[in-house]
Amino acid sequence: MAKLTPYIFSEDARAQAEFYTQALGGEILSVLTFDQMPGGNESHKDKVMHMSFVAGGINFFMSDSPFESISRGSGMHLSLEFGSDAEAHEAFDKLAAGGKVIDPLKQQFWGSLFGVIEDKYGVLWQVTTEHKQG
């Protein structure tokens, strides 16, 4: 059985991970920098080579991308499902800070709250609540 862990490449992994841990609750678990790598590159010594953090109870990996620019696409969203409307609204509002609301969080015909955000780092998020059978 496989385990899926979102791996996000960033212009500033430390700031972006801090944003997510504050918005969703969580903590940074470990950080390795490029200068810790054997033969590490001095010009990238403070850049994050690999980071592990938990936000919203989900494990994430992240890395700075010092060798090529980040290009976000519309082909993937990270979807967060919450057990209550209050949790969904809180996460939606915090992730939207400095970003762009694509589809406001609202009640949908299928019975759940649902909304879409592009956060200030260009990552696309779907925020939803559990579907309750009526």
Written account of the structure:
This protein is α/β, with parallel strands linked by helices and 134 residues long. It folds into 2 domains: 7-64, Roll (2,3-Dihydroxybiphenyl 1,2-Dioxygenase, domain 1), CATH 3.10.180.10; 78-129, Signal recognition particle alu RNA binding heterodimer, srp9/1 (2-Layer Sandwich). 18% of the residues lie in helices and 39% in strands. It is built from 2 helices and 8 strands. It has helices spanning 13-24, 85-96; strands spanning 7-10, 26-33, 48-55, 58-64, 78-82, 100-107, 113-118, 124-129. The strands form 2 sheets. It has a 4-stranded mixed β-sheet, covered by helices on one side. A 4-stranded mixed β-sheet has the order 5-8-7-6, covered by helices on one side. Helix 1 (13-24) runs antiparallel to helix 2. The longest helix has 12 residues, at 13-24. The chain is elongated. The model has no long low-confidence stretch (mean pLDDT 92).
